[in-house]
Amino acid sequence: MASHSPSSEKKSDTLEVGDVNDFKVHVFKSSSELLEKLHDKWSQVEKKPYPAMFSSTYGGIILDPALMVIPIDDHMVHRGHGVFDTAVILNGFIYELDVHLNRFLRSSSKAKISSPFPRSTLRTILVQLAAASQIKKGSLRYWLSAGPGNFLLSPTDLPTPAFYAVVIDEDFSQCKEGVKVITSTIPMKSPEFATMKNVNYLPNVLAKLEAEEKGANASIWVDEEGYIAEGPNVNVAFITHDKELIVPFFDKILSGCTVLRMLELAPKLVEQGRLKAIRTANLTVEEAKNSAEMMYVGSTLPVLPIIAWDEQPIGDGKVGELTMALSDLVWEDMTAGPVGTQRTAVPYTE
């Protein structure tokens, strides 16, 4: 099972269904024939989006996108038994690699998935993978799976867990334009699952699709008690009219690495007298919608201004000054923050 197919393809050029009685499925008689077909598909893609992948089932780094595959009997594929995380590569540095890796291992522990490698080896693999990709700007996404071996529910009899990682060549920049959001009608995950970064993202996907269908960028989840939770794959934060920065409690949602770093950097704005206070708190929908500013916070944004919610303007309906001040702090940290603690240099070779 391929991890991705070329984005330029809209439909298969192999299976053409006319009269059902005439339909015949092609049988690949050799691995070389199949590989030739896969190479032919990828040759039609001008810029390959995945320059490097690591697979513990292969035992190394793969540079040929046609071979970037995951076994169909991997329990992450057919049972959703896997966790993942993502770090940004920017200007040749991996941002907050250790923070993301620590959360990754907390998630795997909650999901009862052991790692085939110690933490230090996982880190080394990710750094070497980034180097092999030669990518200076993109993202580094990695997974721990219960592993391949059968189609049962329990992973008890599987030979070993699996570790996969891929470098994604993607351009991103500091977000400066505001977006619109809606309140999601899709039920959010229970705290046990929401607080671990697992591969079960169907609720997140449906929430995003719901927003797009209504002409919005994304959505906001509200918990069963009526308090603000998070977006489909981002945290959310607010600036009150009293210039307080408020982030919802993390007891029922994922504690985002970027929003936690923003909370560490935000006191600079308090020192400058631009922010009055910083706190985590429960916010009702009414309180949140009446805030002066609102934003999404996530790895590749890092801060995305929100200017309207359910067609109601947030504040004056324009990108907030303090939102952008927070965005500037995080973006500066991503591009010029401390090497070693916040940014890991990628050892590229010519």
UniProtKB/TrEMBL annotation:
The organism encoding this protein is: Malus domestica
Q: What InterPro entries does the annotation carry?
A: Aminotrans_IV (IPR001544), Aminotransferase-like (IPR036038), BCAT-like_C (IPR043132), BCAT-like_N (IPR043131), Class-IV_PLP-Dep_Aminotrnsfr (IPR050571)
Gene Ontology BP annotations: amino acid biosynthetic process; carboxylic acid biosynthetic process
Q: Which Pfam families match?
A: Aminotran_4
Q: Which UniProt keywords apply?
A: Pyridoxal phosphate
Q: Which cofactor does it need?
A: pyridoxal 5'-phosphate
Give the UniProt family note. Belongs to the class-IV pyridoxal-phosphate-dependent aminotransferase family.
Question: Source organism's superkingdom?
Answer: Eukaryota
> What name appears for this protein in its UniProt entry?
Uncharacterized protein
Task: Select a single GO molecular function from the record's annotations and give it.
Answer: catalytic activity
